[in-house]
Input
Amino acid sequence: MFRYNGNAFNRRFLPRLTTKEIEAMPKEDVLIVLPVGAIEQHGPHMPVYTDTLLGEALIAEAFKHLPEDAPIWLIPSISYGKSTEHAEFPGTFTLSAQTLMMVLQDIAASVARSGFKKLLLFNTHGGNADLLGMMLREIRLSTGLDVYRLDPGAVRYSDSFTDEEEKASGIHAGDVETSLVMAVCPDWVHPELALRELPKFPQSDSFSFRSRSFAWVMKDISNSGIAGDATKANPERGEAMLKKAGPLLAEALLEIATFDMGSMKE
Ligand SMILES: [Zn+2]
Output
């Protein structure tokens, strides 16, 4: 199990340090990584902890590939996200938008008060995305931090492992997430209960799922709580996806850590 082991949790987990050690460390170039997950239904076959678990697994994999002296430090995940779209399913423990906004503000203010300058929100739950996008600017204005966001899907680590069908409709508890959890915590998955259920989203440019044209809750688009094909999942592909994600995410973290917000002006 990766938690509290390995490079991320053993060497780069900030709260392992004492207040004196944190006070003494040079902070000008440090990037603080705050994973944001969710606890929500993931179909009949997967744990409700899936998004938070996968965030930590992907971070642990990425930190394996960082140079020893990279100024990148991890803080504990916000395990609970905004999962209102799954609220009708037992086991979904959601924060309201307002609460998550305040939690993000309070943690960011503490990061800034401790003397750090850069904060990254590492998000593994699609339902958090709109709120985090808005909060980046709010936090920047209220704290002065340089604030960044990385959703691991942005490095496209799963693209070469999935078919067109899954790319178009596999947004939740389908092949990708199921394969990953099978690789990370095999005992937490019940493959015999996996299902295939693919929502038929409208496809035009102006009215589509991707352009966020309509407010949906899970029960609008799926009976089982799955949007994707979980029956295709297997642990070998999950392991291969994690291995591919590691160096790509490490590269993205380094790019963010060394980015100069002042460099964009003419
Ligand atoms: Zn998920």
Observations:
- Strands lie at 31-36, 72-74, 118-123, 146-150, 196-197, 228-229.
- The domain at 27-258 is CATH 3.40.50.10310 (Rossmann fold).
- The CA atoms of residues 24 and 52 lie 31 Å apart.
- The chain has one domain: 27-258.
